[in-house]
Amino acid sequence: MKSVALNAIPRTLGRRAGAKKLRSEGRIPAVIYGRQAQPQNLELNSKEMEDLIHHSVSENLLVDLAVRDDARPKRLALVQEVQHHPLSGKVLHVDFHEIAETEKVTISIPVETLGEAEGVKTQGGVLEHVLFKIKVRGLAKDIPETIIIDVSQLKIGEAVHLGEIKTPAGVEIIGDKNIPVIAVAAPRTEEEEAAEAAEAGATALGDVEMIKEKKEEGEEGATPAKGAEKGGEKAAAKGAEKGAPTGDKKGAPAADKKAATGDKKK
Amino acid sequence: MPLMPDRVKYRKMHRGSRAGLATRGHTVAFGEYGLMALERCWLDTKQLEAARVAIARNMKRHGKMWIRVFPQKSFTKKPLETRMGKGKGPLESWVAVIRPANVLFEVDGVTEAVARESLRLAATKLPIKTRFISRHRIR
User: Fold this and answer.
1) Which of A10, A171, A247, B122 is most buried (most C-beta within 10 Å)?
2) How many CB atoms neighbour CB B43 within 10 A?
3) Within this chain, do residues A136 and A155 fall inside the same structural domain, yes or no?
C-alpha cells in the first residue's frame, strides 16, 4: 500500500455545533490517535479527502499526514474509519490511526474476483461472495489494497477457502483457513420457484399466532389438546361475533336506503 | 408464504413514528448492488412481493437476491360506513416502516446492467423514490 500526502489543520471547534459549522464551510472534522502521541483533533479539506477516497479502491488508505504547526513534518497514519452521511454519502468524520513504519497492523482488505467461473459460464451456477473483506496482518507498506482471486476454474459446488489465498511476503491472513471466501452454488430450479409461488397465496393475513394466547392455553389445561380445542372454539366464537355485527351494519343501512328510494320513486 | 411474522405478542399495534433517516440497514451488506429508499413510507406485503417477483423474473434464475426489510408492523382499518368507536378495526395488512436511506433489496451474481434493470423494475412497484447503489462505488 503506497502512502499518499494529505494536509490537515489542528481543530479548535468541537462538539456538534462546531462540527456542523466546519462541514458547512467545506471542511471535515477528523482525529488522529496512536501509540506514539496523544490524540489530536484535526480538520481536513472535504474536497481533498473525498477525491482521495473516490480515486482509491477501498477506504483503506495509508496517508502521510502533514499537520500545520506540528513538530513532525509528516505523520504516517492509516485511515481507520470514515463516517458517511447515510443518504448523501458525504464524508462526515475521519479517524486516522498513527503507526510506525516498522509496526505490524491488522486491517480488513476487500476481495475482488478475476475472470468468470466455469460453473457460472457453462453450468449456470451462481457465484457467491461469502466474505467481502479479509483480515490481514503485516507492515502497512506490504499490505495490498485488494486481494484478487482467480475464479475461472471454479465449478458448481467448489469454493476458494481462506487457506488457499496467496498473499505477498510478510502478510498473513487472520482467520480459520477452512472458511470459504468465494463459492459457486447450483442455480435454483423451476420447481423450487413454482413451489414458492404456490405457497405465497396459501396463508391469509390474519393467520398469525399470538404468543399471549399460547401462554394462556398452557396455563389453562394440562393437556395441550384440550387447550387447543378451547382456543379454537374461542377464536371461532370471536370471529362469528365480529363478522355478524359488521355484516348487519353494512347490509342494513344499504337495504333501508334502497327501500326508501324505491318508495319515493313509487 | 406472504411476508409477515409467524408469531406476535399483540396483533394490533400503535402507528408509531417514521421520523428521521435510517441509522441501520443503510449499506449494501450481502450482495453487490442494492436499491435504496429516498423517501419514507409503509411498504406492505403486496408491494414487497410485487417488487420481489419483478426482480426474480428479470434475473431469470441467475444470481441471488436479498430482501432487506420485513413487514413487522400490522395496521388496522375500520370497515366502510362504520360508525366511530366500538374498538380498533380489523387487521388490514402487514407493513415495513421505511425511512430514507433504507436498503430495500440487494442482488448479486449478475452483471451491473441486469442488476440495474431488475432493481429499476422493482422500483416501479414501490410508492417511493429509490436509488440504485453499489458496494464498490463509494458514494
Assistant:
1) B122
2) 24
3) yes
**Residue A265 lies in domain:** 227-266
Rounded to two decimals, the ipTM of the complex is 0.86
Sign of CA dihedral A79, A83, A89, A90: negative
- Do A8 and A93 lie in one domain? The reply is yes
Instruction: Tell me which residue in B6, B22, B79 faces A246 most closely, judged by beta carbons.
Output: B79
The domain boundary, picked from A37, A71, A100, lies at: A100
Min Cα distance A264 → chain B (Å) is 23
Instruction: Summarize pLDDT for A58-85 with one digit per residue, the tens.
Output: 888 999 999 998 888 899 999 999 999 9
Nearest-by-CA chain A residue for B94: A205
Mind giving me the DSSP string for B3-26? S--SEES-SS-------S--SSS-
Max mean pLDDT among A46-55, B6-15, B31-40 falls in: B31-40
* B51 and chain A in contact, CB less than 8 A: no
Q: Residue A116: closest CA among chain B residues belongs to which residue?
A: B109
Q: In what order do the strands lie in the sheet with B41-44?
A: B41-44, B91-98, B73-76
Q: A208, B1: Cβ pair inside 8 Å?
A: no
Helix (H, G, I), strand (E, B) or coil at A87: coil
User: Which tens digits make up the pLDDT trace of B76-99?
Assistant: 999 999 999 999 999 999 999 999
- A to B CB pairs, distance under 8 Å: 91
CATH number at residue A115: 2.170.120.20
User: Is the model's pTM score more than 0.90?
Assistant: no
